[in-house]
Amino acid sequence: MIEGEFDLFFTAAYPRLVGQLYALTGDWAEAQDVVQEAFVRAWDRRSSVLTGDRDPEAWIRTVAHRLAMSRWRRARRWWELVRGEPAPRPEPEPSTDHVALVAALRRLPEAQRTAIVLHHLCDLSVEQIAAEAGAAVGTIKARLSRGRTALAAHLVSDKSHPTEEARA
What we know:
It is a single chain. The protein is mostly helical. It has helices spanning 3-25, 28-44, 46-49, 56-81, 96-106, 110-121, 126-133, 137-160, 164-167.
């Protein structure tokens, strides 16, 4: 892939990948950072990653997701060292529905959250998710089923317990 092709690929895929990583992480700035870093790594490995029968967008999404999880683990360890101080709150999202969805997604186990986001927000098929996750199709179907059930329960329970702002 030459520079012009890479630029076109970046322009098309970047907003979509940032949206997907935002859904996975719940932090817009973090999503932008890890997607940018993943694109840098893709450019450095363009001869192997961006050619052949590999899906470059899937590779970048996987790298960005791993970067985000690694950063989250490091941040968690740091906060454990300075206990007593609350973790910084993420920037407020634009709507209450959006906040509820992100909060409910955060409560899901990572494997279920990833399957839900890739299937429903990224429009990947079960087979594509299985290939990307290195899991069996049946495993992805189970994660989707369990994730949807848990997500629905979290969304229903959140609506039955309004926030302080909604009560005021």
